[in-house]
Amino acid sequence: MTLTKAQIIESVQNQIGLPKNRSLQTAETLLEIIKRTLASGEDVLVSGFGKFCVREKKERKGRNPATGEDMMLEPRRVVTFKCSGKLRERVNG
Does the model's pTM come out above 0.90? Predict the structure, then answer.
C-alpha cells in the first residue's frame, strides 16, 4: 500500500495534535520548500532519512517504442534519492 499525502497529514494531526488545517499547511510548506530547492538545482539532505539529488542528463540517442524510430533525447535534469544507512537498516529489519 502506498502512503498518500492525505495520510501523512492525518498522521501529523494525530501524532502532534495539530488541527487538520495546520497539519495540511505544515506538510504543504515542507513539500514546497523541497520542490523549490530541487528546482533551483540544489540537493536536499534529510539526516537519518536520505538525500534527494538533482542530476544533469546529457543528450542521448533513444528510440520511440511505438514506431521503432531513432531519436535524440533532450538534455534534462532528474531527481534521484539515496537513502541513509539508518533508513536502509530499518527497511531491512
Answer: no
DSSP string computed for 13-60: HHHH---HHHHHHHHHHHHHHHHHHHHTT--EEETTTEEEEEEEEPPE
Cell numbers at 20, concatenated: 487538520
CATH assignment, 42-93? 4.10.520.10
Q: What is the pLDDT of residues 32-76, one digit of tens each?
A: 999 999 999 999 999 999 999 999 999 999 999 999 999 999 999
Q: Locate the domains of the chain by residue range.
A: 1-40, 42-93
Q: Pick from 32, 19, 2: which is nearest to 10 by CA?
A: 19
